[in-house]
Amino acid sequence: MSANKAVVLLSGGLDSATTLAIARSQGYTCYCMSFLYGQRHGIELEAAKRVAVSMGAAEHRVIKIDLAQFGHSALTDESITVPKDRPELGMPSNTQQIPITYVPARNTIFLSYALAWSEVLSCFDIFIGVNAMDYSGYPDCRGEFITAFQEMANLATAAAVTGPRKYLIHTPIIEMTKAQIILKGTELGLDYGLTHSCYDPKDGLACGHCDSCQLRLKGFAEANLKDPVQYA
Amino acid sequence: MSANKAVVLLSGGLDSATTLAIARSQGYTCYCMSFLYGQRHGIELEAAKRVAVSMGAAEHRVIKIDLAQFGHSALTDESITVPKDRPELGMPSNTQQIPITYVPARNTIFLSYALAWSEVLSCFDIFIGVNAMDYSGYPDCRGEFITAFQEMANLATAAAVTGPRKYLIHTPIIEMTKAQIILKGTELGLDYGLTHSCYDPKDGLACGHCDSCQLRLKGFAEANLKDPVQYA
């Protein structure tokens, strides 16, 4: 087992929880970072806390930032409705519009904070649960974005100027289907009942109809497993 | 005159104020963005507000973020002393250590927020007053970092996927000496008495001995101009 540290971005959803389980299985001591960014569903932060504890994180830091002031996303702007039962969800990504749940520059900002914390921790490994397969159409979930961020990170920081080690942005689930992700996490002992995926929960229950619920339910169905989360 | 919008990062210091003056002189409608990031000298935000007004900014937004929690910089950590009268300040940058006033990943985080706002404003021009000549030894003030950030930005955002326009990160003063910067701003009508540079002000007065004051004073001396700011 390696004693290396890793910063793991953790939203409390299925993808990032699995990413944490994978980082841990690779021997990393995990420093989890979540964001309270004006999202409608602060409930996912409670999920992030549960997951971090269950996966033995060394520390879990919640950063409060204000992305809601920029508006323009159904995830942060109360005046925009979260779309439900979208027929185009299963279509190839190049025929999709960017969905209204896209938050401007969100992963860029999240990774920038992860980079700041990594620099302070003298840690060179950052894990992010982006996924390009069961793709929601977000530009900042693609491999070419991650590669470009990694190159930038290695020019941005003191470590890049003074040290021999380079930052590595790990995306262990980027090429997995949702079913493969769920099977991997289950194999690693992750309890998906602790996670939360819904964009538009009511009374703490998942709606079952937003993009995120639909992708999740499809994943569990394909994995031949029952989703332990309760739906409205 | 172009009617293009630009997001301009504005600290309230000499470099960013001049950068704003240059952006305005190029015909951009300027949207200024400053950060309250746990820095000791919130006094520089007052300077940013004065400068934005005097330069006719369309909007000035102050984003509150918490970089102090990461510590490790004399600018955000009260337990670290701001160095004074450093003899190595004039030395070539490759012989310098990275100074303790470096804030981890600061410009990466600032530019990420500028990118988010640009995306919402449908704006593709971002100005930042980094300077590699009178160089303080910060890795995130170098041209290669800016170029890498620009490439990343063009893969990160909806505009990169759906639109024909590309983000451009403008660094108009990157190759100027401090004296050249001051002469340029003066030519453009900027009142440097509105700006604030000191890392360690006392009772609103600049200390005259930190890296930032020393570079500023050297610049005014070389420009044969009197610095209108008051020193302790």
Provide a quick synopsis of the model:
The structure is a homodimer of 232-residue chains. Chain A is 35% helix and 11% strand. With 232 residues, chain A is of the alpha/beta class.
What's the CATH superfamily of chain A, by name? HUPs
Residue stretches of chain A low in confidence (pLDDT < 50, at least 5 long) are 90-96
Give the oligomer, counting copies of the same chain as homo and different chains as hetero: homodimer
> Quick one: overall form of chain A?
globular
Largest sheet of chain A: 5 strands, parallel
- Order of strands across the widest beta sheet of chain A? 3-2-1-4-5
Layout of strands and helices, then pairs:
The structure is a homodimer of 232-residue chains.
Chain A: E1 5-9, H1 14-25, E2 29-36, H2 43-54, E3 59-64, H3 106-121, E4 125-127, H4 143-156, H5 158-162, E5 168-170, H6 178-187, H7 211-222
Parallel strand pairs in A: 1-2, 1-4, 2-3, 4-5
Helix pairs in contact in A: 1-6, 6-7
